[in-house]
Structure formats: structure tokens, C-alpha cells
């Protein structure tokens, strides 16, 4: 979560040199400037290449089907229309998948936040017997691939008749997301010095009051980050959903998008609608993602104690 | 969970300031005396969730791998224990080893490519003007933020044989062989597209992590090297790269672990009519064995192999995280 990096230190070109040396270095400086421009151009080309699929998705979503089928693609929104979006929304499948996705995602976020917050509190505020093994277990568990477990998870859910249910998927998602969120929140909890809380207690607050009024607000950024992380995982997840929601009548958005594409494959894919559907799924993710990028790098309260 | 589950993985390096040295020594000790039960109670919900969602399935999987668990059991026959028969059966099957080899090659190619491109991007970001760097960062973030299913779907559209941009572009460049060229219907070009998708999705995390590592290199060190007459290349090989080596190795390890478990991207690309048996990776092989052929015993045996492999590979990463847990 380190995208917004500190400002670049000044470039070597600004190092002052004595006037006498300048003529000798002039060719070198020109060469350096040419090199700088060339590198900048390479950087811009890379940026364009990397963002192109995202751009193409949004552009195609707004382009009428007739233009998408033409032999020469258009690279600018010359014929923008919202018709692809309205077709997707009229279809009905999208809204029912959206409903299921929202249910699963919000339940997962809620469960993860509460459970992981308690867990993080336990391991960062107390040293207790078994703590080390718990931390070790959490770290290993977060590495376990869904791809090595989904068969057993499928058998488990079918055994207790929870296939195609919100509860079943939510349990699997919660278990999958908790380890990393405990680890992430642990850092945030440890970042709020216990001295702050103790100072508040010296000033007459009870332990609970001190926690709620002092520590909890300071943990808000950590909770937001963890919540967004859980949201992104649950909203995007495909593999577990594929086995836990086998029926066509219960699909989360990623499953539905796949189905939507396959269904239209027989009569020639309407890529405009498929891209509109992809865009609809991607937008909340991109928004949350960008929000949390900034939020998480803003530092915590390291200066609050030392003043 | 998914391949791009990386969101926030580096958070524990910069999102979490280390606590003041005095704190762990004093505060926890006070609490421990007062409420010995509290931490255990707080852990109960998380532990229950982990037991239900992960630990029980793992146990169930071990049992299943030792049982004859196929179609008959689906119709009510009790499964019988057969010892290591499933392992013997699956692991003497050549088709499994073909999949294992394919997965390892695919994984290594993807991980190395991702880290190489990520490193190049990070160095590029260091070298260019701020405006260019910010543009590149925003573009990388947008690609990183794309949901996996949406990303794969876009690539299917880009590589569509009739109206895809890629074929159009190649034909414009004079390569007429690519008119109506179907990328996803033969194994080699299928994996080429799969590699492009995965590298595209994974590079942002790698590039931004390495770049964060590069900015941590103190400018004075480089300044000193320049005064001593070190060339740009010497600075790169003798200062920058050694100093970001820890980041590089962790990122490479994570990529290897993640690329070994690629499943969904392959599954989604296969929908376009690829030869399934020639394009399956480990996860897909398990899925097919279990869900399509109903051989749950065999699928469980392969799954256990994958789990053990992951745990073995994860050990260095977990150890490096544990060091942070003062």
C-alpha cells in the first residue's frame, strides 16, 4: 500500500558546478537531457499500454454494437451511448447477482471487521500463552490457496446443505480474509500507544471509556482499510464462489459476468454489453481502491505521544 | 484468495509504525495480571471462523484423500478407507505430471517476467520527471484495481478473433496471418494470452512495492557514490539493487506462490473453446477431477500435494513476517 510515495529527491542535474567546468560538460548535459526525454517517453508509453485495457473496457461499454463489429476499431468515444448499460440492467440477471453480491460482501465485511479487530486487539495488547503459535498459524493460513481446498469446502457445504446459500459463501470468505486482516490491524493497534489510553485513565476515564474515546477513533483508518480489503476480496472472488454457488439461480457478480459472456457466445458476443457489465462491476472496486490507497499511507499517530 | 489478493500486502511495512520500545514491556504486563482470560475470549470468534471455513475442510480433505470417494459415495454408499491408494493412483498418472510440469514452467515464467518488468518500471519511475511518474503510477493503480474477472473478460475482447483490437493491429502492421487468428484455441497462444493477463494484473503491485523500496535508499549514499565517480550503471548494480534486494526476494517469492495457484484466469479463458486437457494447470486439474469426474478422493490427494507445496514455499515469507512481530 505504498503507491503514493514521497516526493522524488532533486535530480543530480541540479547539482551546481563551477563555471569553469561547464563547457567541458556541455555535451554530457545535452546527452543527459536527451536521455531524460527518451526515458520520459518510454514511461508514458508504458503507462498507456498498462491503462489501455481499462480504457478499452470503458470505451467499448459506451460504444454502440454496430461500431464494435466494424472492421476498423474507433479509439475515441465518437458515438458514445448509454444503451449497453440500459440493456444490461434491463436483463434482470445483473440485479439479482448484484443483490447476492451485496449480501455476501456486506456480511463478510461485517464479520471480518468484528472478528479480526478482536483478534488483532488480543495479539497486540496482550502477551499470552499460545500467542506465538496463533500468529504463526494465521500467517500460514493466509497463504493457503483456495485452489487446494475448494473440493473439501464444496463437500463440507453440501454436507450441511449450505450450497447456493449466502451463509455458506460468507463463512468461507470470512475465514479466507480474516488472517490477513488480523495481521494488518495488528499493526494499526500496535501503532496506537497504550500510554495514550493510560493517560486518559489517569485523567479519570474508565478503561472502556478510554478505549472508546481515545483508541477506537485512532484505529478508524485501520478499520476502513481492513473493511475495504474485505470488500474487495468478497466482491471480486471467483474461485470459491464457483464451487459454493453451483446453481445458475444464485450467482455473485463475477459468476454472472462469466455466464453472461458464455450465454451470448452462441449468437456472436455483444461485446458492448459485456464491457458495460464489466464496467459496472469494476467501478465500485476502482473507487474503493483509490480511496484506500491514499487513506492507508497517511501515517498514524506516531507523534501524538512524543509531542 | 485470488491471484491479486495482494492489495495491502506491503501495508505491514509502512502502514504499521513500530511501537515505542517501552510499550510491550510495560502495558501488556499490567493487563496480563488483570485479565488473563480476555485475549482468549477475544480470539474466540476468529478461531471459530477459521475452524469452520479452513481447518475443518483441511481435515476433511486429509480424510477424503485416504478414502475411496467417488460416484458411488455420491449415491449414499459409505466411503471406505483405502490407505494411500488415491495418492498412488493419481501420482502414477502421467497426465498429472504433465500438469505439474506445465504449472511449474508457467509459474516461473510468469513470476520472473512480472518481477523483471516490475523492477524496470520501478527504476523508470525513479529516473523520470514527476509528472511522468505520477501518470505511470495512476495507470498502474487502475490496472491493479481491476477485478480479476473483468480484467480477463477485457483481454478476451482484446484478443477476440474477429473484432479484437490485437488482431486488427497486427494486420495493420502487415502480419496478415493474424486475420481472424484464434489465440485461445491452441495451447501455446492460449498460454501467451494467459501470461499477458497475469503479468498485466501483477506488475502494478511489484512495481509499486519495489519503487517504495527504492525511495527508501538515502539520497546521501547515491550522492557520495556520484562524487566518488560512480557511473549510473555502477550505482544501479552496487547500491540500488543490493539495497532493494530484500523487497525483490519477497516480491518474487509471493509471485511464485500466487502464480502456482492460478486457476480462475485459466478457467475463464478456457470458456472460449480452448482444449481443456492441454491447458489445465494444477487448480484446474483438481477442479476437473473433483467437480466433473466426481473423483473426490483423487482430487483431495492432489489438493494435499498443492497445500504442502504452498506451505513449503511460504516458509521464508512467513519467517520474514514473524520477525516483524516483536
From TrEMBL, chain A:
The lineage's top-level taxon is: Bacteria
Gene Ontology terms describing biological process: transmembrane transport
Enumerate the Pfam families for this protein.
BPD_transp_1
Q: Where is this region: Disordered?
A: 1-29
Keyword Ubl conjugation in record: no
Where is this protein found?
Cell membrane
- Specify where it is mainly localized: membrane
Which keywords appear in this protein's UniProt record, sorted alphabetically? Cell membrane, Membrane, Transmembrane, Transmembrane helix, Transport
**Matching PROSITE patterns, A to Z?**
ABC_TM1
Residue ranges of the ABC transmembrane type-1 domain? 98-292
Query: Which InterPro entries does the record cross-reference, listed alphabetically?
Result: BP-dep_ABC_trans_perm, MetI-like, MetI-like_sf
From the UniProt annotation, give the residues forming the signal peptide: none
What Gene Ontology terms describe where this protein resides (cellular component)? plasma membrane
Task: Please give the start and end residues of each transmembrane region.
Answer: 37-58, 100-122, 134-154, 166-189, 210-232, 271-292
- Gene3D superfamilies in the cross-refs: MetI-like
Family, as annotated: Belongs to the binding-protein-dependent transport system permease family.
- PANTHER family given for it? INNER MEMBRANE ABC TRANSPORTER PERMEASE PROTEIN YCJP, MALTOSE TRANSPORT SYSTEM PERMEASE-RELATED
Q: What is this protein called?
A: Sugar ABC transporter permease
Lineage of this protein's species? Bacteria, Bacillati, Actinomycetota, Actinomycetes, Micrococcales
TrEMBL record, chain B:
Spell out where the chain crosses the membrane.
37-56, 103-124, 136-159, 188-214, 235-258, 296-318
Question: Which GO cellular component term is one of those annotated?
Answer: plasma membrane
Q: Which PANTHER family match?
A: BLL4140 PROTEIN (PTHR43227), DIACETYLCHITOBIOSE UPTAKE SYSTEM PERMEASE PROTEIN DASB (PTHR43227:SF8)
Q: Which domain of life is it from?
A: Bacteria
Location in the cell reads: Cell membrane
Q: Sorted alphabetically, which keywords does the UniProt record give?
A: Cell membrane, Membrane, Transmembrane, Transmembrane helix, Transport
GO term, biological process aspect, one: transmembrane transport
Bilayer topology reads:
Multi-pass membrane protein
All copies of domain ABC transmembrane type-1, residue ranges: 100-317
Extract the SUPFAM superfamilies matched here. Answer: MetI-like (SSF161098)
Family the UniProt entry places it in:
Belongs to the binding-protein-dependent transport system permease family.
- CDD domains recorded for this chain? TM_PBP2 (cd06261)
- Name this protein carries in UniProt: Sugar ABC transporter permease
Q: Where is this region: Disordered?
A: 1-30
The record's section on InterPro entries has: MetI-like (IPR000515), MetI-like_sf (IPR035906), UgpAE/MalFG_permease (IPR050809)
In the UniProt record, does the keyword Ubl conjugation occur? no
Amino acid at each position: 500500500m505504498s503507491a503514493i510515495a514521497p516526493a522524488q529527491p532533486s535530480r543530480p542535474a541540479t547539482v551546481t558546478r563551477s563555471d569553469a567546468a561547464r563547457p567541458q560538460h556541455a555535451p554530457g548535459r545535452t546527452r543527459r537531457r536527451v536521455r531524460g526525454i527518451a526515458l520520459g517517453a518510454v514511461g508514458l508509453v508504458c503507462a498507456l499500454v498498462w491503462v489501455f485495457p481499462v480504457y478499452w473496457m470503458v470505451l467499448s461499454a459506451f460504444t454502440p454494437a454496430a461500431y464494435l463489429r466494424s472492421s476498423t476499431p474507433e479509439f475515441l468515444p465518437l458515438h458514445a451511448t448509454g444503451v449497453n448499460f440500459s440493456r444490461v440492467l434491463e436483463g434482470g440477471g445483473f440485479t439479482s447477482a448484484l443483490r447476492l453480491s451485496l449480501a455476501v460482501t456486506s456480511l463478510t465485511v461485517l464479520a471480518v471487521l468484528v472478528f479480526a479487530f478482536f483478534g488483532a486487539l488480543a495479539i497486540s495488547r496482550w502477551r499470552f500463552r499460545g500467542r506465538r503459535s496463533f500468529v504463526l498459524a494465521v500467517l500460514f493460513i493466509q497463504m493457503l490457496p483456495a485452489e487446494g481446498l475448494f473440493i473439501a469446502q464444496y463437500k463440507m457445504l453440501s454436507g450441511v446443505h449450505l450450497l447456493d446459500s449466502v451463509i455458506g459463501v460468507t463463512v468461507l470468505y470470512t475465514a479466507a480474509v480474516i488472517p490477513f486482516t488480523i495481521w494488518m490491524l495488528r499493526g494499526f493497534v500496535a501503532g496506537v500507544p497504550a500510554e495514550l489510553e493510560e493517560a486518559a485513565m489517569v485523567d479519570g476515564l474508565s478503561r472502556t471509556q478510554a478505549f472508546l474515546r481515545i483508541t477506537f477513533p485512532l484505529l478508524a483508518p485501520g478499520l476502513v482499510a481492513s473493511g475495504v480489503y474485505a470488500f474487495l476480496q468478497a466482491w471480486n472472488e471467483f474461485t470459491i464462489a464457483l464451487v459454493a454457488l453451483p446453481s445458475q439461480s444464485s450467482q455473485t457478480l463475477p459468476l454472472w459476468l462469466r455466464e453472461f459472456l458464455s450465454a451470448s457466445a452462441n449468437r456472436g458476443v455483444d461485446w458492448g454489453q459485456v464491457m458495460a457489465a464489466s464496467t459496472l462491476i469494476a467501478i465500485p472496486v476502482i473507487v474503493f481502491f483509490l480511496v484506500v490507497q491514499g487513506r492507508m499511507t497517511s501515517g498514524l499517530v506516531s507523534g501524538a505521544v512524543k509531542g | 484468495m485470488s491471484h491479486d489478493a495482494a492489495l495491502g500486502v506491503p501495508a505491514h511495512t509502512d502502514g504499521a509504525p513500530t511501537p515505542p520500545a517501552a510499550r510491550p514491556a510495560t502495558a501488556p504486563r499490567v493487563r496480563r495480571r488483570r485479565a488473563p482470560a480476555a485475549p482468549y475470549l477475544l480470539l474466540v470468534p476468529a478461531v471459530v471462523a477459521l475452524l469452520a471455513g479452513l481447518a475443518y475442510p483441511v481435515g476433511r480433505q486429509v480424510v477424503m484423500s485416504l478414502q475411496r470417494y467417488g460416484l458411488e459415495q455420491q449415491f449414499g454408499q459409505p466411503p471406505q478407507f483405502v490407505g494411500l491408494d488415491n495418492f498412488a493412483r493419481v501420482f502414477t498418472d502421467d497426465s498429472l505430471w504433465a500438469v505439474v510440469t506445465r504449472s511449474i514452467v508457467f509459474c516461473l515464467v510468469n513470476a520472473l517476467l512480472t518481477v523483471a518488468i516490475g523492477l524496470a518500471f520501478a527504476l523508470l519511475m525513479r529516473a523520470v520527471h514527476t509528472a511522468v511518474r505520477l501518470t505511470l503510477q495512476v495507470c498502474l493503480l487502475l490496472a491493479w484495481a481491476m477485478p480479476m474477472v473483468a480484467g480477463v473478460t477485457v483481454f478476451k475482447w482484446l484478443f477476440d478473433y474477429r473484432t479484437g483490437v490485437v488482431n486488427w493491429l497486427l494486420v495493420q502492421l502487415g502480419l496478415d496471418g493474424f486475420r481472424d487468428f484464434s489465440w485461445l484455441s491452441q495451447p501455446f497462444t492460449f498460454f501467451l494470452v494467459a501470461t499477458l493477463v497475469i503479468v498485466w494484473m501483477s506488475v502494478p503491485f511489484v512495481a509499486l512495492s519495489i519503487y517504495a523500496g527504492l525511495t527508501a535508499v538515502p539520497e546521501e549514499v547515491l550522492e557520495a557514490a556520484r562524487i566518488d565517480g560512480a557511473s549510473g550503471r555502477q550505482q544501479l548494480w552496487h547500491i540500488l539493487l543490493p539495497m532493494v534486494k530484500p523487497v525483490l526476494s519477497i516480491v518474487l517469492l509471493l509471485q511464485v506462490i500466487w502464480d502456482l495457484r492460478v486457476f480462475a484466469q485459466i478457467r475463464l479463458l478456457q470458456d472460449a473453446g480452448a482444449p481443456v486437457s492441454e491447458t489445465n494447470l494444477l487448480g484446474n486439474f483438481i477442479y476437473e477431477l473433483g467437480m466433473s469426474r466426481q473423483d473426490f478422493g483423487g482430487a483431495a490427494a492432489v489438493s494435499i500435494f498443492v497445500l504442502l507445496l504452498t506451505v513449503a514455499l511460504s516458509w521464508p515469507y512467513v519467517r520474514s513476517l514473524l520477525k516483524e512481530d516483536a
